[in-house]
């Protein structure tokens, strides 16, 4: 009888311990943190402002001293200053008009195409789209908006 009582007590103790662990794990699964701080990594790492800040080394394919006309071709030479560099283009503040906005966003998109794996445009696509967008203000505004969306979404 004593032996049965001892076995029963041990079983009850084990059951009690198992119940405590289960209750703790259920509580842990259903609680939410009181304060959660999350920081989106990469937010802003693809914008013209980021590239103009020089916080990251530029891709070797396009040094900061590269001119817009050398990178984007003769159509860009006709539209922008012949000595406008990509660094200057990313730092522009006159993006209320379509063509300045296009060169600013396109410069960032080109840098992202070289530096960011998974960026939706390849370098040749950025260059081609810029040349095509230079035909009109409407086309420039539309393409600048598309580049801006891609630059903002990238990480």
From TrEMBL:
PROSITE patterns attached to this UniProt entry: PROKAR_LIPOPROTEIN
InterPro entries: Protodermal_1
Alphabetical keyword list: Signal
Stretch forming the signal peptide: 1-28
UniProt cross-references to PANTHER family, sorted A to Z: OS04G0517000 PROTEIN, PROTODERMAL FACTOR 1
Protein name: Uncharacterized protein
Native organism: Rhamnella rubrinervis
Organism lineage: Eukaryota, Viridiplantae, Streptophyta, Embryophyta, Tracheophyta
